[in-house]
Amino acid sequence: MSNQPLTAIPVAAPVYHDSFDLHATLLDALHAAAVTLQDGDVLAVSSKYAAISAGRVVRLADVQVSDAAQQLAERYAMNPVMAQLVLSEADHVFGGIPGFLLTFKDGILSPNAGIDRSNIPNGYAVLFPVDPYGVAVAIRSLVRARLGVDVGVILTDSWLMPGRLGTTGVALATAGFQPVQDERGKADLFGNPMQVTQRGLADTICAAAQLVMGERDEARPIAVVRGSGVTLTDAPITQADVAIDWPLCIYVQSLTQGLLISAPTAGD
Questions:
Q1: Please, which residues have CB within 8 angstroms of residue 259's CB and are 6 or more apart in sequence?
Q2: Poorest-confidence range of 92-96, 214-218, 246-250?
């Protein structure tokens, strides 16, 4: 990894509520912010911004609620329309709590399949982009062709860490560098071989980008992260490069097949 300081540069861009030209907007925003990309930079782009550009905005009043969604809504005390959208979008639904369903979507454990009703007019919701890895590749190709620089790209999202308050950044998709760095077999400070550690580079960089991009009305859906030290590659990156199989996931497995019959309560 690089020894140079890590820098995250926010880039403002226009607010949109419907389809727009994402590529032209990215180039214009970088120019307006006087940000010159350099080889090795990582360009972080809000996945919601990318989704809106592709028209992945749903008018809630237009959603038809199925019997299955109605039953889910009653069981988990949630809006039937949201329950229907989750059923339509999620790759898998694990269960839920009042108001939310825990889902697996595009390689990420997320509430309500990543469907977002913030920073969009009332009565609408934004879905995840279709083929997020393809979107990231297209942005990287655009930057190389139009600006002549080689960068990595991340589509950013916010994620709830199990057992913790507050959201942090998570990479919905990556292009141009491996999202995970395998440290297994390498020596630690005392010469012991690392047994299980694999560094989530894309997610860590995403968290840094989220610090300057914001979550509310900042209108900064783009950030340039410089000095991350990632090794760029043209190798294709897919969900399989970062998503863990459920039987190996400590959260999923421990709360399903590995659940204690009589679990101790907090403080025991």
A1: none
A2: 214-218
121 and 40 share one domain: no
pTM of the entire predicted model: 0.88
Instruction: Give the largest Cα separation in the chain, rounded.
Output: 61
**Average pLDDT score over the chain:** 88
Query: Is 228 within 8 Å of 206 (Cβ atoms)?
Result: no
Tell me how far apart the alpha carbons of residues 102 and 120 are, in angstroms, rounded to a whole number. 22
Question: What one-letter code names the amino acid at 20?
Answer: F
Domain interval for residue 172:
1-55+132-268
Contact 209, 8 (CB under 8 A): yes
Please count the other Cβ atoms lying within 10 Å of the Cβ belonging to residue 3: 6
3-state helix vs strand vs coil in the chain, percent to 5: 30, 25, 45
